[in-house]
């Protein structure tokens, strides 16, 4: 009888230990650690969202890792990152791969409107560039457009805009959005291609410095001139407006989904607005006067 009791106690202890370990290992929106991967173009807004989320949830840790957009998506499929930031439309094959490997339907969580900018040094006489001119440069051996790298969100988005593959285009490279701006003056006649989020933070010291070094070109489409103002991002009138969205491979309501929900709801949208981007989910504020 004593042996039976001892066996039962041992089994109970093992089951309790396994249950305790399982509970400890599974995170939730208020506790745990995850990796979020983002292209360098969206570093500022994602770091701001992660910092605010962790401040509200002190037992969480969100590691923001900078990685090219295409590589980040592969890491998501291979479970190396819990959440990734995307800006381009996935191909049907990529959506199918997501559905198969992640075992979740492809559901983008849209949270902000960003844009691809075409910039020149402050003292350049150039004021605008047309869609036709951009396309011509992308097929020219002169390689006058400078992108921040291959597999980057800026290159992917511009290529998709012209229904081309990045490999079919001709361009120059300076790694990093900020480096493109800082080194552009060394390449007369070239046009830099950067993200709006790189310079959008109104009071960020680095963003302010970069804004003093460049001129943002207006884009001409069908005879109309557009600049990347928040109004034009809100209406999607600026031709290179893009919607940023989050994807996760998390199949339960854990820290990844908690971070996504936060980013898309009011507190997260306030963070997006403070970053100088256009919030995707706009919350109306009504004041009644009596």
CATH T-level fold name of the largest domain: D-Maltodextrin-Binding Protein, domain 2
The largest pleated sheet is described as: 10 strands, mixed
Mean pLDDT: 90
CATH superfamily of the largest domain: Periplasmic binding protein-like II
Radius of gyration: 23 Å
Estimated helix fraction: 25-40%
CATH architectural arrangement of the largest domain: 3-Layer(aba) Sandwich
The SSE order reads HEHEHEHEEHEHEHEHEEEHEHHE
Task: Give the terminus-to-terminus CA distance.
Answer: 80 Å
If helices are DSSP runs of H or I spanning 4 or more residues, what is the number of helices? 11
In percent terms, what proportion of residues is strand? Answer: 15-25%
Q: How many β strands by DSSP?
A: 13
Summarize the structure.
The protein has 290 residues and is an alpha/beta fold. It contains eleven helices and 13 strands. The protein folds into two domains: 27-112 and 242-279, Periplasmic binding protein-like II (D-Maltodextrin-Binding Protein, domain 2, 3-Layer(aba) Sandwich); 113-241, D-Maltodextrin-Binding Protein, domain 2 (3-Layer(aba) Sandwich), CATH 3.40.190.10.
